[in-house]
Design goal:
four-stranded antiparallel beta sheet, elongated, 3 helices, alpha+beta, single chain
């Protein structure tokens, strides 16, 4: 009975669940690939991740001279929530 009333164990890192650029990029790629296709997303390397106001903004890139859009993901640093996913044209 006592175990049923206790709060489940939860580890929440001080730096948040998405503490760095590498983690943010791995999460974004895991989201993009099923939506846009692995080959398409691989073609947008290198990926960039910047932190602004507690949100990782992760974007693909295009080869120099190419015109078009890239995949974009916004991910909460604190809890890993996916706030936005899009792809430019």
């Amino acid at each position: 009975m006592l175990a049923a009333q206790s709060v489940p164990h939860n580890v929440k890192p001080a730096a948040g669940y998405v503490p760095d650029q590498q983690t943010a990029i791995r999460i974004a790629v895991a989201i993009w690939e099923p939506i846009y296709g692995r080959e398409h997303i691989e073609g947008e390397k290198p990926y960039r991740a910047t932190l602004k106001d507690g949100v990782w903004i992760v974007a693909g890139s295009l080869p120099k001279g190419w015109v078009g859009g890239v995949a974009l993901a916004e991910i909460s640093k604190e809890d890993g929530r996916i706030l936005r996913v899009s792809h430019g044209r």
